[in-house]
Amino acid sequence: MSSRRASVALAFAAALGSTAAVGLTGCTAESAPPAETQEVSPQQTEAVEFAPATGTEVATDEYTFRLPDGWGFPDGAPDGFDPTTFAADLQDDDDYPDNVNILVSPGGEVTSDQVEQSGIDELEDAGATDVQTLDRVTAAGSESAHLTATVSTGEVPYVIDQYYLVDAGQTYIVTFSSSVDVPQEDRDALAMSVLATWQWV
Fold first, then answer.
1. Which pLDDT band, with edges at 50, 70 and 90, does 122 fall under?
2. Which is more confident, 149 or 76?
3. Contacts of 50 (CB under 8 A, 6+ apart)
4. What is the CATH number of domain 3-40+49-200?
């Protein structure tokens, strides 16, 4: 498997490693076998209204962004994540706390075409359902693919929305995980409110 192919597989596999409590656990690239690529036309979605997030600022040597109000680093966050790579809605009182995590692609830059061509097969092979490629978005100065899927591998099913931000030849995979009853429009608005504040250092 090529490094770029492996990085795509890792991103998809990692998105499905989420625990029912708060989010992702690790997964290796080898856990997702190669799949035949196919041409996929992104599903058109209506533009959503949103305001940039105004909550806690997250800052690293590579990027900064703001969380929605009421979000932060939770107790019991998955191993391998810290306050710069994982946050959850600390006021969420349903069975699945909505959250966001950031992973660095191990293969460097992954293009939107690569994501859209292999994403559906990779996610379905890993057990996801209702996998869709949605309209690309512009975030952090670059165009990003947008995949969504339902994950039912744990005790509580949830929905993921995954974006791919690129800077200096490196892709950062940003995954928002939400309760299954949150409408796509609301998920898009929340994700875009965060991505609108993303800046490279």
1. confident
2. 149
3. 188, 189, 190, 192, 193, 196
4. 3.40.1000.10
Half-sphere exposure of 127 (CA within 13 A, CB side): 13
The DSSP annotation for 117-132 comes to HHHHHHHHHTT-EEEE
Domain range summary for the chain, segments of one domain joined by +: 3-40+49-200
Would the pLDDT of 15 be above 80?
no
Residue 181 has pLDDT above 50, yes or no: yes
**Beta carbons of 35 and 121 less than 8 angstroms apart:** yes
166 by DSSP, 3-state: which? Answer: strand
Q: CA torsion sign, 111 to 71 to 200 to 50?
A: positive
Contact 192, 162 (CB under 8 A): no
Closest among 14, 40, 195 to 119, alpha carbons compared: 40
Q: Whole-model pTM above 0.85? A: no
The answer to whether 161 and 148 are in contact (CB under 8 A) is: yes
Strands (E), 105-185: 129-139, 142-151, 158-167, 170-179
Which pLDDT belongs to residue 37? 41
Measured over the CA atoms of residue 118, residue 87, residue 81 and residue 172, the dihedral's sign is positive
Q: Check whether 86 has a pLDDT greater than 80.
A: yes
